[in-house]
Amino acid sequence: MKTRRNLLFVLSILSVFIACDNSRIENDTPIVEDENIVFLKSSLGGCNNQTAEMIKRGEETVIPGEKSDTAIIRIERDTLTIFVGLNYVCCAPFVTDCDIVNDSIFVTITDTIPENGSYCKCHCYYTFTYYFSYLSNRSYYWRITLIDPREEDEKLFYEGIINAGN
Questions:
Q1: 130, 106 Cβ separation under 8 angstroms
Q2: Cβ 162 vs Cβ 81: under 8 Å
Q3: How far apart are CA 62 and CA 64, in angstroms?
Q4: Per the CB 3.0–4.6 Å rule, which of 18, 59, 136, 147 could disulfide with 54?
């Protein structure tokens, strides 16, 4: 009789642990199926919003030439983050745009310096971070394009395939 009680006690404790473990798995957010990816926002960092006066006073936030041009893809559950780091002439004003067409993500970074505007005489590291949600369990093509008014054609900065959930 005592053996049965001990066995029942052990089984009940074991079932509590198994039940707790299963509830933890059920609370994880799965990758959303049959949804279109949605662009949430972008944020500009690095040398964005730096003025010639700030650079002359040594207030720039990133030391020029310190980093390489970069594109980093990060996936966390159903959220995609694309980080872009760009070495470019100082004091450039940028605007960014993002278009999603089916399973393709097109990011454009445009230098909007006016025709009679001037750059500072240095190079700086600009950063751009793009956030997306509702990433599905499939592959996405992504492309980042740079539009430099000093160049005749736009420049393909980076491109690739993102395999989400595979």
A1: no
A2: no
A3: 6
A4: 59
Nearest C-alpha neighbor of 41 from the set 80, 75, 69: 80
Measured in residues, the chain has a length of 166
Domain definitions of the chain by residue range: 35-163
**Contacts with 127 (C-beta within 8 Å, 6 or more apart), sequence order:** 44, 45, 46, 48, 62, 83, 84, 85, 86
In this structure, which amino acid lies at residue 76? E
- Judged by DSSP in three states, 39 sits in strand
Q: Greater confidence, 96 or 29?
A: 96
Which pLDDT tens digit goes with each residue over 24-60?
Answer: 333 344 444 446 889 999 998 888 876 666 666 665 5
pTM: 0.70
State both tokens at 119: 């750059």
The residue to which tokens 């207030």 are assigned: 59
